[in-house]
């Protein structure tokens, strides 16, 4: 734990991580949060309980960077003989418009269990979240050992493609956003036997990906209103001999002549002026 403390203080990649997810923490109720806390991070734990059928080991926890998000809701804590799981709902300070919230699940699946049962349980909780938040990005990560979710979550992408323990890929991360992350590894911390997996964001928001369509609209201003009043006042209406259609055409002609126009950009359902679009693209 001291090594993790130090790396969070001196290394930018740790200090500015949005979340740090740990599996097989071996934490118990007798260990207070203060002993395992990190500066500027909020810790959420799901320690192993007797429901797992085991007394030691296991457990998961998630550290959430306070500079990234402080709107945190615990959706569930699950502890069974086949899977240990912590699911959180997060609403970061900045979130692309297309996402209402972010769902994070940290799991630990012990070795030597029924992998089909574990996969079905994980998929059940994921589908529950998707039914409530169909547009939300859902990430499920952790130590899966010999289990995988490819069959039960076929629409999800698995982002980790590098060995995480010797030559095996045991630590996985599934998500419902294609090409959202790339994975890089670093050596284990302390006496741990699993590599550290860094997930680097590759996702680009829709506003930056979609090419905007340009629209021209007409708009009244104070100057054009005065000009229209002058045009109508200077018109010799007696020449129309009471023909309403001709008078109407004359008024429409004056209106089209005097109204100004401007360009708007439409992207992802939003109509933006050029200055607003430029500001958003350079955030």
From TrEMBL:
Gene3D superfamilies: Endonuclease/exonuclease/phosphatase. InterPro entries: Endo/exonu/phosph_ase_sf. This is Endonuclease/exonuclease/phosphatase domain-containing protein. It comes from Merluccius polli (Benguela hake).
